[in-house]
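Put briefly, the fold is written as integer tokens. The lines below illustrate.
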Amino acid sequence: MESGKKLYLECYSGISGDMTVAALLDLGADEKVLLEALESLPVSGFRVEIKRVVKSGIDACDFRVILDKEHENHDHDMEYLHGHEDGHMHHGHQEHEACGEHVHSHIHEEGNGHHHDHTHGESGGHHHDHAHGESGGHHHDHAHGESDGHHHSHVHGESDSHHHDHIHEESRHHEHSHVHEHSHHHHHEHRGMREIRQIINQGSMADGAKKLALKIFEILAQAEAKAHNMAIDEVHFHEVGAVDSIVDIVAAAVCLDNLDIHEVIVPMLCEGTGTVRCQHGILPIPVPAVANIMRSHKLPVRIVDAEGEFVTPTGAAIVAAVCTSETLPKEFAVEKVGIGAGKRNYERPGILRAMVIQDRADDQDVIWKLESNIDDCSGEVLGYVMERLFEAGARDVHYTPVFMKKNRPAWQLNVICAKEDIEKLEQIIFRETTTIGIRRMEMERTVLRREERIVDTVFGPAQVKVCEARGVKRSYPEYESVARLAGEHQAPFSQVYQTVQRCCMDDQ
């Protein structure tokens, strides 16, 4: 990513895994790189579609994970998720996200076969006609009618011979079909973190994508472990092990890595109200996993006056893993916009907008300088004054030896501060020193973008300041942090300093 660029996720309609992937693809993440990474995963029972849809009149990218009948989780079934016991909805429809975190078992009666007829209304309408026989194979006929969309189909087959015929009636479309045979059979696997780590590590993707995918899963697993009062490695649950969760999280990590995004701003997560049906029964919104992630990672949340689950566990875990700031720059330019579509039907339009922004107000700044010459104050007094000024908000304080009239040795006191702090800082100077006058100067300055970070070292966590100058990042270990670690480990200050600096370079 170029210098100064940041990713802004606008989550006013919530966030889920598939919405995130779609928005990042719309921003320009390489679709070929993504599909190759998903193909390499030792997981079957799914295919993905990438296409254009219209959400509330807005053109958006749609990333859809389509599961086979053994892995289907009813996550698009609004009556199942939010209906009463008799299956009736208690609020209206408008499309939102498919989170893939709530996995539900379902039973098909054994007979000559079963028939499912699903109709989905998108920009031109989709019709899916599925006929399942019990003769050792399954035959699926899909007819998709779209108005000017791109359709990409990625198919994972199994060894029991599934046959898929796809008929696409579109005015203009692109079709990509990938078929993979796997020799193993799935029955709603309960995967834990050990299995998840194996799956991701076996995948063919960049190291940065693997690292981020594992981080997202760790956050999600910790939240589920907390909800069930279990150790993280003892939890075997649908929410982490579900195929669509694996696909969504790996896809999001691959896209973020491909876009070379390192700074992500998320000012607010908007969550709905009510209840949702999941593996563990009917639960209040936000569900326990989301609430635990919000608490553990101090995510900014606003509860909106609308029924529905807008923030899914995967969406919350992605935000917790990648968010570096909650505050937008005062001035910025929007360079790219990506819109990801959701699947669920809620009152709010189900879109996630992602923007690549360029900070425009990062170089210029205005600061004030207070200055006074003092020839009859002791060094002890000036030392005390310096401490008081810093406590009151001064940006910097220093005093310099000078010679005044009649060759008197004296001190020139300089205080750098913001305009709003001038009055209280002057009061301290007048009260604590013998000065009878203070000069004020408004000064323009050029500053580098900077941020405070904590890096892990062999000596322990260390605080550093990271500055960026025209695409080049420089790290400066904080003195107090280095001094504390050197004292704790009885190590030379220079050794600890160099160790912290090396860890900063590895972390960038």
Remarks:
- Residues 207-228 form the longest helix (22 residues).
- Confidence is low (pLDDT under 50) at residues 76-82, 84-151, 154-188.
- The chain has three domains: 5-359, 364-446, 449-507.
- DSSP finds 13 helices and 25 strands in the chain.
